[in-house]
TrEMBL record:
This is Asp/Glu/Hydantoin racemase family protein. PANTHER family: BLR3294 PROTEIN (PTHR40267). It comes from Salipiger bermudensis (strain DSM 26914 / JCM 13377 / KCTC 12554 / HTCC2601). Pfam families: Amdase. It comes from the Bacteria.
Amino acid sequence: MSAPLPYRLGPARPALGLVVLQSDESVEADMRRLIPQRGNLLVTRVPSGAEVTPETLAEMEGHLGQAAALFPPWARFSAVGYACTSGTAQIGAPHVAAQIRAAVEADVVTEPVSALIAACAALGVRRLGLISPYVAEVSGRLRAVLAEARIETPVFASFEVPEEARVARIGPQSLRDAAMRLAGEAPLDGLFLSCTNLRTLSVIPALEAELGLPVLSSNQVLAWHMMRLAGIAAPKRAPGRLFMQTR
């Protein structure tokens, strides 16, 4: 038998972890588009319901630790993100972080709600128009959490779609039409397209140009916050004022 081949180990890239809902079809592709290749993005999935209700969202808390434990056991993360806006609002950001930290080594844990609050602070947004795909009781919890952070949502609209399989297929024209209608209903500092399963990145630049407002989305703010916390520079192609004004 021949001797083992010689090899050298290359430098480790900053590891970023992403906990994605079993039912989500959009966020992983968006995050790989937004996070540069020098950030080593590792993904796991958490069981989630086919329909989004307060009950199915709350059930995820009990599975978060198991999902995070499926990351490579030797990984040391600069940041881990839980990719669910409404789930975070329902479970609570501290509880999300506690479940993930119990399973993996991570410098920081974030999610779209904490990321949105940080993005609003960075952009000076206090009056936020909110568009959600979900039923009123789910969206209402998110609005209450934002109110606790002193972010008003004076205008709100929803597609009232509970099924995740349909949410991922809401088209860009529907998002644009909803945003244009909502922005005309009250003075706003910005607009938020809520839900990691909505495909929002392609509509952000045109909406910002038409509305003259920052337009934020769940996947955009989560990627921005994870990179910011991990000390990774965002790529120049990242869409939206959020990336342009906080470089």
